[in-house]
Specification:
single chain, 3 helices, flat, mainly alpha, 66% helix, Non-ribosomal Peptide Synthetase Peptidyl Carrier Protein, Chain A
């Protein structure tokens, strides 16, 4: 068997092409959800937070060596992004994997 045939069998056996397509679609969906969060949801959240610039909220930690910051706003934004992306992926998987209810025989 030639190397090309072996490679083609590998692709078919392990469904690598399907995985690659899913990876590409997942990346595009991630960009879409991030845009939705940044452009639609976060401006509304910004209205609720005094000052509106909540992504820059940080706690300063200083000592004799230097100054560090805990970037709370960035972390909260990442958590919100993750929750929304996880919810969207869950809904997509639930829709795709939905099994038909068995029909009753009379």
């Amino acid at each position: 068997m030639s190397m090309i045939n072996e490679f083609m069998e590998f692709l078919k056996k392990y469904q690598v092409m399907g995985l690659a397509v899913a990876f590409i679609i997942g990346g595009a969906a991630s960009k879409l959800v991030s845009a939705m969060v940044n452009d639609l949801i976060m401006p509304i959240v910004g209205l609720l937070v005094p000052g509106g610039d909540w992504r820059n909220i940080a706690i300063s930690l200083t000592n004799e060596v230097g100054k560090n910051e805990l970037k709370i706003g960035d972390f909260i934004g990442a958590v919100i992004d993750f929750v929304i992306i996880a919810a969207v992926v869950f809904m997509i998987v639930k829709f795709i994997m939905k099994e038909k209810e068995p029909t009753k025989k009379v």
